[in-house]
Design goal:
Elements lengths: L1 H19 L6 E5 L1 H14 L2 H6 L3 H7 L9 H8 L4 E9 L3 E4 L6 E14 L7 E15 L6 E8 L5 E4 L7 H23 L1 H20 L2 E3 L2 E13 L2 E11 L5 E5 L16 E6 H11 L3 E6 H4 L1 H14 L1 H6 L5 E6 L4 E5 L2 E13 L9 E16 L2 E19 L10 H20 L3 E2 L1 H5 L6 E4 L3 E5 L4
Antiparallel strand pairs: 1-10, 1-12, 2-4, 3-4, 4-5, 5-6, 5-7, 8-9, 9-10, 10-11, 12-21, 13-14, 14-16, 15-16, 16-17, 17-18, 18-19, 20-21
Helix pairs in contact: 2-7, 10-12
GO molecular function, one term: lipid binding
Pfam families: LBP_BPI_CETP (PF01273), LBP_BPI_CETP_C (PF02886)
Organism: Myotis myotis (Greater mouse-eared bat)
Length: 472
């Protein structure tokens, strides 16, 4: 009974600890203002936002609601409009978008400046009278609490930014008419922009978000397997969009072999500074990618034929243990190297190591079935991460034996430290080139190219690898 109560108490304490713990996603994609601006600008082009602006029904709007709906001024407005044959936008441009955080830091404010020229024709002059109009649409991006994504929470014309002026002054008869038209446009233009352009901006934003989602979900090849991300949640961080991602590993048949969700494992997410984006991938996800390249395997080496100098050194080392055993080593002596457990990627403030548990067996010839002895070696190698274009490359530098154990022996009991140096050199000469050959394919960083960059860079934190780019 006491044991049952103790178990219940421990479960309660564990649950309370997990509730209070900060869970971190397997990966985080940070998108800076540059990416947001470029993606939304392209979507506005794809949605023909310029054409929508050029087709704003200026004249019909003024006639439907003269003087902003104030009846007492209706006759004065009509006297102005009666002299207008046509009035329409002759030139429209969307200037560079500006992205900035809201005052509370919980939303992003996107300012979309518009530069418009309207022309009207009047019997008073033969030429077209042109009016220059500058205004700004303000859209607000917020987190959609009911879903994982973001939402465009508001969109409106910033009437305080509206500036209207004549491009060229005309005769004393036309100038008063032009001034009258401009006064009518002051209340009408913001309403028109909101009703006609804001739906286009909302559609462009939704498509931008959909494109980003497809970009995130594009599978990444890791050897014959694939690493795939999908959206876990979204957030606004300063003037950046943060996409928190879960991850899964799929085999060549598309079957899920490993899934990564939020975890109490630490994750350091560096700030963007001047970088346009960053992708931070948690250590355990990267470890699974490396494991996909280096599955458990057995490597047999006919030492005397392939590495004769090491064969002589091994024979000399075994002779110290047993002269009889050393004398039995023939020209077909074989060393078998088995990697039975998954390698462990260890990160530590800018450096990385790959720890492996290796079994090494020595056979007197290719005809015998029992080895002279079996050694268990706890080895590690320095992992070099570097990028080549938009490809992550990995390379193992050197290999060291941290611990060496005698697992069994058919020749005599001995201190395995006697063989530590020669065993390490055999691993360096046989295992390391084999593993580097498998890692040589690298990992394509499809997300880099999808964001419009051809070069990537990477660096390590204490618990993740970070990909970014600062050149297009």
């Amino acid at each position: 009974m006491a044991s049952s109560r103790t178990f219940t108490l421990l479960c309660g304490l564990l649950a309370a600890t997990l509730v209070g713990a900060t869970l971190n996603p397997p990966a985080v994609l940070l998108l800076g203002p540059e990416i947001i601006r470029e993606k939304l600008t392209q979507e506005l082009k794809d949605h023909d936002a310029i054409q929508i602006l050029q087709e704003l029904p200026l004249l019909s709007t003024l006639r439907e609601e003269p003087a902003g709906g104030i009846p007492i001024l209706g006759s004065l407005v009509n006297s102005v409009l009666n002299h207008i044959i046509w009035l329409k936008i002759t030139s429209a441009n969307i200037m560079e978008l500006q992205v900035q955080p809201s005052a509370d830091g919980q939303e992003l404010i996107v300012n979309i400046p518009l530069d418009l020229v309207a022309g009207f024709n009047t019997p008073l002059v033969k030429s077209i009278v042109e009016i220059h109009m500058e205004t700004e649409v303000q859209a607000t991006i917020g987190v959609e609490t009911s879903k994982k994504g973001l939402t465009l929470s508001s969109c409106s014309d910033n009437s305080r930014s509206l500036r209207i002026s004549l491009l060229k002054k005309l005769s004393f008869m036309v100038n008063p008419l032009a001034n009258g038209v401009m006064k009518l446009l002051v209340p009408a233009l913001p309403k028109l922009v909101k009703s006609q352009l804001c739906p286009v901006i909302e559609a462009a934003f939704e498509d931008m978000q959909e494109d980003l989602l497809h970009l995130v979900e594009a599978p990444i090849s890791v050897s014959s397997d694939h690493l795939q991300f999908d959206l876990l949640s979204s957030a606004i961080k300063g003037n950046n969009i943060q996409l928190n991602l879960r991850a899964k590993l799929l085999d060549s048949q598309g079957t899920e072999t490993k899934r990564f969700s939020e975890s109490a494992a630490s994750l350091t997410i560096p700030t963007l500074d001047d970088a346009p984006f960053s992708l931070t991938v948690r250590q355990d996800v990267m470890n699974a990618a490396v494991e996909a390249f280096l599955p458990s395997e057995e490597l047999a080496v006919m030492l005397d034929s392939v590495l004769p100098e090491l064969a002589l050194r091994l024979k000399s080392s075994i002779k110290v243990i047993s002269e009889k055993a050393a004398a039995q080593l023939g020209r077909t002596q074989i060393v078998k190297i088995l990697t039975q457990e998954a390698p462990a990627l260890l990160l530590d403030k800018g450096s990385a190591k790959l720890a492996q548990m290796i079994v090494l067996e020595v056979f007197a010839s290719n005809e015998v079935r029992r080895p002279f002895f079996t050694l268990g070696i706890e080895a590690n190698s320095e992992v070099q991460f570097f990028t080549k274009g938009a490809q992550l490359m990995l390379n193992l530098n050197e290999i060291s034996s941290d611990r060496i154990h005698l697992m069994n022996s058919d020749i005599a009991l001995f201190d395995p430290e006697i063989l530590k140096d020669i065993a390490t050199d055999i691993l360096a000469a046989a295992l390391l080139p084999n593993q580097n050959g498998k890692l040589r394919a690298g990992i394509p960083l499809s997300i880099v190219r999808a964001l419009g960059f051809t070069e990537a860079s990477s660096f390590l934190t204490k618990d993740a690898i970070v990909f970014t780019s600062d050149s297009s």
